[in-house]
Amino acid sequence: MKNNNDYVTHNHDHYKDHRQRDLANRKYKDGADICIVGAGAAGGVLAYELSKAGFSVVVIEAGPFWNPQTDFASDELAAQSLAWQDTRLSTGKDALTFGHNNSGRGVGGGTVHFTGVFLRFHESDFKTKTIDGVGEDWPIEYQDLAPYYDKIERDIAVSGPKEFPWGSFHGPYPYPERNPISANSQVFRKGCDRLGIKSVVAPLAILSAPFDGRPPCISRGFCNQGCMPNSKFSTLIHHIPKAIGYGAEVLSDCMVTRIELDDQGKAKGVTFNHDGKEHFQKAKLVIVSAFAVETPRLLLNSTCSKFPQGLANSSGLVGRYLLTHTGHDIYAKFDDEVRLYKGTPVMALSQDFYETDRSRGFARGYTMNAHGGRPVSLAKNLAVSAGIWGSDLYEIMRDYNFYARITIVGEVLPDYNNFVTLSEEKDEYGIPRALASFSYGDNDNKMIAHGVAKANEILEAADGKAAFVIPDSAHLMGGCRMGRDPAASVVDEFCRSHDISNLYICDASAFVTSGGGNPTETVMAIAARTAQHIINSR
Ligand SMILES: Cc1cc2nc3c(=O)[nH]c(=O)nc-3n(C[C@H](O)[C@H](O)[C@H](O)COP(=O)(O)OP(=O)(O)OC[C@H]3O[C@@H](n4cnc5c(N)ncnc54)[C@H](O)[C@@H]3O)c2cc1C
């Protein structure tokens, strides 16, 4: 019998014992207290906190149980498999690109291939309607999440600056900031300094010193390809192994196709597909943590006579108010080599343009990330998103080493007409494929224009020559927004669905607004708060 400490020892193959081989002999075949759908950022935190509190927990994950030592490759193309690659249909004026840029698949979810930029939301993010007259207020405030932000940062030893100039949290972070920073980040900070724009070394869920049996980052630079040395946090290597140590069971390669209700209209478990066969997992409470596209899709697919519009959907808002961040990439060319592939991709950022400044002509704002990048994705994005082909494309790729990049992570305002729903087309499980529709609004477009101009100013102040812009988006959120009014939201402030008392929806889909910074710390803080609520309600 292993004790819990065995599961926190890293760099050996502690995952193999838990790859599901025999579903007939699974641990909680006759029922568990809690079934969590999806083992990503939120699902991992929930599994850890709830199993630690003594609940019997089953986590059902569509993708594989990755082993960093054998499954992660220092190869851009090979690592595409870490993302959700099933076909999703996309429409709208600014149709979203899915695949590698949007969600994970497999234990760890998006945390396996995320960049590790770890930011809190600001106080204003939770009340944009009250403060700026745009978007919607959340049913919670920054202060409700603050203790959970603290906890998550401590739990995974976030590295960051001693002083963080923006928002309510001013540091220090549990672990010191990363040093040295990449050449791209040095270029960014030089440009900011010359223009009087504040910048810092980025807070990262990547170790700057040893922690929990894991080594500090060696700046190998393949963060988005899965971190083989385990220096970057993911729920795959942190929360999930510990949850297993507390008794949780993880069923990987198992696609949940429906949430099932009993005669009283309460959740009784989920149906899932493994290797072409259907299985049922009984549970007293179901939590859906399948991310901003798959969560609404699963709810909409789980129709029954009592809920013909899908589960938790009496408001008609499941799938509505889908959010993303503007993710425009601004490139400039330098005389000296920058080598964008080197080191942790984001090592410096600025939030000087995060809060509303009416003189700019739009509400809300953005984070600027000095953002490294790899050559295959650059070539693809140049051709597909920027429409640069032929000799122009060849020349840029030939001079790849001389480009620097800034990415604008900008707040997109919530819009009822941005949504995910079910299409007419079905996948191999017989579930209708997701169809997402997305268009930027006027405020979003003004913000993008401002961010692009500001990034060019910074790069030019650092002696670069403005080169090209690749339009992009990042980080999906929303689709099951939280709120107090059951007619205007899908879940309450603890992510409990308004319609079904033992059905929780807890992941990025619960976001009301997108904030102007990378979202995963907020996803995890919300999950930790939801777990505490479930524990308190026991
Ligand atoms: C390239 C990239 C870089 C990023 N970088 C950053 C960053 O630097 N900082 C930051 O804050 N955020 C970043 N993000 C965003 C981050 O990954 C997400 O915000 C976060 O993972 C969302 O957490 P989640 O729990 O909602 O979903 P996920 O982490 O995506 O987890 C959902 C899980 O559910 C599983 N699932 C889905 N449907 C089913 C089903 N029907 N049955 C069973 N399982 C299912 C999926 O396989 C997945 O494992 C990045 C994202 C990408 C794509």
From TrEMBL:
GO terms of molecular function: flavin adenine dinucleotide binding; oxidoreductase activity, acting on CH-OH group of donors
Residue ranges of domain FAD dependent oxidoreductase in the record: 33-73
UniProt domain Glucose-methanol-choline oxidoreductase C-terminal: residue ranges: 414-527
Keyword terms of this UniProt record: FAD, Flavoprotein, Oxidoreductase
Keyword Flavoprotein assigned: yes
UniProt xrefs under InterPro entries: FAD-dep_OxRdtase (IPR006076), FAD/NAD-bd_sf (IPR036188), GMC_OxRdtase (IPR012132), GMC_OxRdtase_N (IPR000172), GMC_OxRtase_C (IPR007867)
Residues annotated for FAD binding in this entry: 256
Cofactor dependency: FAD
Start and end residues of each Glucose-methanol-choline oxidoreductase N-terminal domain: 102-325
Keyword DNA-binding: no
Annotated PANTHER family: LONG-CHAIN-ALCOHOL OXIDASE (PTHR46056)
Record family assignment: Belongs to the GMC oxidoreductase family.
The protein's name in its UniProt record: GMC family oxidoreductase
Organism of derivation: Metallumcola ferriviriculae
